[in-house]
Amino acid sequence: MIKMLSTVILLAAFSAQAPAQERMKVRSEESLFLDLQKTGLGSLNEFEEKKKFFETVKLEKAKIQATMLGNVYENAFEYYRSGNYEDARGLAAKIISIDPNHSDAHMLFEASSQLRGSARPAFSEKIMMEDRFRAALSLYTEGRIVEAHKKMEEVVKLSPNNIKAKYWYAKMKDDLRDYYTQKGGEAYKARDLKGALDNFYNALLIRPKDVRNIEWITRIEDELRQEKANGQLKSALELYAQGDLKAAYEGLRRALEIQPGDSKANKLLLEVKNEIEGSYIASGKKLYGARRYTEAIGEWGKAKPYTANLSYLDKLIARAREQMKREAEDKRRRSEEAARRARQEEERRAKEAEELKKAEEEAARKGVTVEEVVKKPAAGVSAENRLAAQQHYLEGLKYFQNSNYEKARSEWTITRQLDPENADALAGLKRIEQILAGGQ
Predict the structure, then answer these.
(1) Residue 84, SS3?
(2) How far apart are CA 224 and CA 325, in angstroms?
């Protein structure tokens, strides 16, 4: 796809140089996209695909444009060297219309404009070059090294065979490196680290293998990173003091991304992580005590990104889930027990109704009252009450073993009501009173 794209753009670029299309119009990415669809690329429906496609178009167009303008400039310069200043000026103007920042085109346009229409082009060019050369030397003498270098560079570009200009240009280049180095040092002393870095990089562009500049750049970049990390650390400390632990944690992480070996940031990050983890654990335990197990598990889960002891959190979560399971089982069992008791009560009432009906029939047959027919139960606890009392005692025993003394006391009180002779329930109630009173 990229190769096809490059081909289409190249064709467009070469056709742009044809005489019939010297207006050099730049087509939009959308129109280019539609033309490329016609070549068999198909349609791109996804937004991201279109975005990547257009970015590729921009990159390829920039490359082609740079190459094309370079070729046009060479043609313009050939016109200039041959004394055809009018055509040189025209081509330079076209370059500027496409790329207003093309410095060489601006230089050639100015020189061609100055020389066009001259009766003696060669003589006029020589005078112009001498004027520019002297202007560059004057700027150099005044200590305006940057302007002098730029002016002398124009002389060398417009007059490549000017040996004198080349000599001074090389000398100014060395001085310009020293100038940038000096300015970098001054900026560094003034603690303008970014300005210092810019100057040392400018010096390095002139002499790429200068060890001193490389050392300065390395040093300043380290200090800039440390300065930036200190800023992040200071901001994190302020957030920490305000109690915003999560924001402080993120700030410390950013500081360590800049300076991973910062001991202060690492130490504080550990403390903040411990506090965040501790707050989540405490919150989870409080919810657990209120039997809000799902919320407790959620709090312990939030603590995981900040913990160094993941197994402890997993144990807390497992315990909560086990307790949820146990209580659900107890609830189910109690529900089943309540249903069983309801059935027993219903059966008892049905049995009593049946016995009453039989008693009424027998009383009518014998000509006596129903009370005379129904015999009074023997004194003592019925088997049914004794069974129910035993069940309540066992319930109370479970609560007692889980340290739920109030529930245990309630169950054993019911046991005593159903079976006053139940000695185990009586002993249990006495034991609970001792515990609640502070005994052992």
Answers:
(1) coil
(2) 57
If one counts every other C-beta atom within 10 angstroms of the C-beta of residue 50, the result is 15
Query: CB neighbours (10 Å) of residue 400?
Result: 19
**Which residues, at least 6 apart from 295, have a Cβ–Cβ distance to it below 8 Å?**
284, 287
Structure tokens at 98: 């496409």
Two structure tokens written together for 338: 């309540």
User: What are the structure tokens assigned to 118, written together?
Assistant: 């001259």
How far are the Cα atoms of 33, 99, 195, 219 from residue 215, in angstroms, in the given order?
Answer: 48, 37, 16, 6
pTM: 0.42
Contacts of 39 (CB under 8 A, 6+ apart): 4, 8
Contact 4, 41 (CB under 8 A): yes
Alpha carbon of residue 83 to chain centroid:
61
Tokens 């004027």 map to which residue? Answer: 131
Structure token digits, residue 109: 């346009």
Following DSSP, what letter does each residue of 283-330 receive, concatenated?
A: HHHHHHHTT-HHHHHHHHHHHGGG-S-HHHHHHHHHHHHHHHHHHHHH
pLDDT tens-digit series, residues 1-33? 444 444 444 434 444 444 433 333 344 444 544
| CA–CA separation, 212 and 194 (whole Å) | 18
Which residues, 6+ apart, have CB-to-CB distance to 175 below 8 Å?
Answer: 140, 145, 149
Is-contact 150 179, C-beta < 8 A? no
- Write out pLDDT tens, residues 215-263: 999 998 888 888 888 888 888 888 888 888 888 888 888 888 888 878 8
**Burial zone of 12 (CB within 10 Å; 0-12 exposed, 13-18 middle, 19+ buried):** middle
Q: How many CB atoms lie within 10 A of CB 252?
A: 29
Contacts with 71 (C-beta within 8 Å, 6 or more apart), sequence order: 17
Q: Give dist(CA 168, CA 415) in Å, integer.
A: 115
Residue 216 CB partners (closer than 8 Å, separation 6+) = 181, 184, 185, 188, 196, 200
Amino acid present at 125: E
Burial annotation 93-114 (CB, 10 A radius, 16+ → b, else e): ebbbebeeebebbebbbebbee
- CA-to-CA dists, residue 300 to 63, 248, 279, 281, 317, angstroms: 56, 20, 10, 6, 7
